[in-house]
Predict the 3D structure of the following.
Amino acid sequence: MKPSTPLPRFCIHTMTTKPWSLEDCAKHYPTVGATGITVWRQHLQGQDPKKAGAMLRDAGLEIVSLCRGGFFPAPSPSRRQAAIEDNMRAIEEAQALGAPLIVLVCGAVPGQPLEESRKQIADGIAAVLPFATKAGVKLAIEPLHPMYADDRSAINTTKQANDVCDALGSPEGLGIAVDVYHVWWDDALEANIKVTAEKERLFAFHVCDWKTPTTDILNDRGLMGEGCIPIRKIKGWVEASGFSGHNEVEIFSTRYWDMDQGEYLKLIAKAYQEHVA
Ligand code: ZN
């Protein structure tokens, strides 16, 4: 397929087209105008990240970030140490790939108080941040919707993410990824996006949509325009605060993964043009 006009801020997460290999993504994303790619670690498995990075850049794609690090809280010190070591490996992968940013899904332990998990998250970030900074890789905390507070993230609002950054002394290499799926409901979102930007820590912006009903809390996200998230309004707040990075399409959807991915990619591009660009 002939490449369409490149859209300078259009990025797609490899998880969005999960059945495709990284080579498939490199071949097909530019045909619909995508200029950015966020690579999920599972799409790197068994590959030399350095070569993978070169392949993506040769295809005309800017590597926006590597997903994901995090999952710091654990019930025992040895498991928390294992998490830190896994984040170190992610940082090495990002450096070799040429990804300037790692997105953190911070983690939580069912039954452990959220404030304890938040403390463990801050400790975990503090442990890996010097290593990341030395590697030239930034870290972005992604607040997750509270329905994931049991086992995926004890950081559920942009304010809580800002609090962790503040508690760690606002290091330059630590910021926030705003994903509309997770934060659209928050009445303090606009104010906290403003704070995030003022502190120069708004590092990434992810889009998809919230379907009604949502039949699976992880894998039933919608294409932009298919749900109730005011994407343009939130994008407006993000841009008013000076953000000019990529709009990253990140959709987990069993329904769409079951489709022909080439046809799905066309739907993604259409939804992007109509509801984001
Ligand atoms: Zn996201």
Summary: The pocket of zinc ion is lined by residues 142, 179, 206, 250 (CB under 6 Å). DSSP finds ten helices and eight strands in the chain. The chain has a mean pLDDT of 97.
